[in-house]
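Lab notebook, bench 4. The sequencing result for the construct came back, and we need a structural model before the next group meeting so we can plan mutations. Quick request posted to the team channel:

Model the 3D structure of this chain.
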Amino acid sequence: MEMLHLQGASSIIGSEYCKKYVHPRGPPSLLPKLFLQPPATSKALLGKSSLDSRLLISYRGSISAEVGKQCWDFGRFLKTIYFFQGPPSPSKFIEFIIEKLSGPAPSEPPKRMESSGIFLVAGATGGVGRRVVDVLRKKGLPVRALVRNEEKARRMLGPDVDLVVGDITRESTLAPENFKGVRKVINVVSVIIGPKEGDTPDRAKYSQGIKFFEPEIKGDSPELVEYMGMRNLINAVKKGVGLRNGKVLFGLEDDKFKELPWGALDDVVMGGVSESTFMMDSKGGENGGPTGIFRGVVSTANNGGFTSIRTKNFTVAEDLSAYDGLELCLKGDGHRYKFIVRTRRDWDTVGYTASFDTVGGQWQSVRLPFSSLRPIFRARTVTDAPPFDPSSIMSLQLMFSKFEYDGKLNPSFVEGAFQLPISNMRAYIKDPVTPRFVHVSSAGVTRPDRPGIDLSKQPPAVRLNKELGFVLTFKLKGEDLIRESGIPYAIVRPCALTEEPAGADLIFDQGDNITGKVSREEIARICVAALESPYACDKTFEVKSVVPFSESFTVDPENPPPEKDYNEYFKNLKDGITGKELLQKSPVAV
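Done. Here's the predicted structure in token form:
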């Protein structure tokens, strides 16, 4: 295992250079030599498997420099350059010195950085799916349709719709590039149920509803479509749509500690004498768990004034485009720090930066929205920099500096020792969280196995669940995959679907008890509305029209009903109600 708690260490070369040429009184650093490789004791500890053993690193040395008495350490300078493997060119270094001495240039307010994403519709040629595509396009939202048959999709959706061909039942067809940029998903893929006696070319019998024909499964089985297909689709989009609890970059996750390749990057690179390190404390966290510690001594001697830790460039760029910012869990010391994110591999390049204040002696969570990051190069705002791209993050940096931006100074800067414990860094989804994955399931999915239910009074799909390949059982299992995925979701369970227009009054319910009918057009509108509603997030609900089967519903084109505010329905939904609460502990094995 690579040693990740790296730090700058003074060397014999540096101290000899200091004694002879710079400052005869400057003491050599006593930092342990961990910058390039761990000491023998640390190597031994790294060989153990437990978390505590891995993090109980013995630091026998310390940062012993005193403000005003340090000297430039040439050896530490070389080690810094060697560790990051990307030194600035001599010409850039000279240019930097000239610019630094010439004073700050005037700056303009930084551009606001926004991000957008694509809405994926899986099953886009189905009765609900094509209507979902239409609703999204009318709203001017970027739509991508996942279809199995491109020719059929072009006929139904038009020549200008963004199509990708894939089959959720066949994982190999779900190429990662097809889901690049996807931020929200509406899944209306469903097993095909049709009349045993056959149907018309335009599926007229099917459109009437299962209540009016003897059904059978057409094509792939419910297990393959509703369960395995759901698993494949979730795996394909999970990275792009994000997780409710965020993505951990550094810190504990599922009882494992995720590390980053930190190294010290101090003002030694420009002739300064400040010195810092990054180390692990196995019990220094807020609740007695492990934490990293950024600590050191900062000095303004030799025109310096900053210390920092920076990661090596990631082997593969970190894609955080599904999230809205970075959150740090740390114990403050009353100072102001900078957090810097780079999206290029170059050593000397624009860093997208945010400053944050800390409260002394208190553990706190600091959120840094991506939209607040300023493009900074050598402490100056770059007004024509490209927008921050969270999909291509190459390195992270944490800095304590005398300097802010554009000639301003850090108001809380004090020379001397500092210490900042950091137990966790993660990408987060901003509040209020809205669904990222809306799935159209079916009313009745919990009823085949429900004790005491009168099946004779239930819809055909409930009565014939076994004959139809356990279609509702597998739909329920597919729902469970979504609920367990960590993706913010909404699960819509329509009653019998019809070709009637939208506009009838609706009943929303939970617990899987209602029967009736509802328009496909209405369900499409509900799905799109759910994507934007925090009230719908992580909710499962059934929907039906107040119009009974015995009556048809029509709309006067000259006097259409007003558009619904679906939030009025969503806001009454409750967490944790799925209908599974009424099932026996041992449902039918599948």
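The two ends are 43 Å apart (CA to CA).
Will bring this to the meeting.
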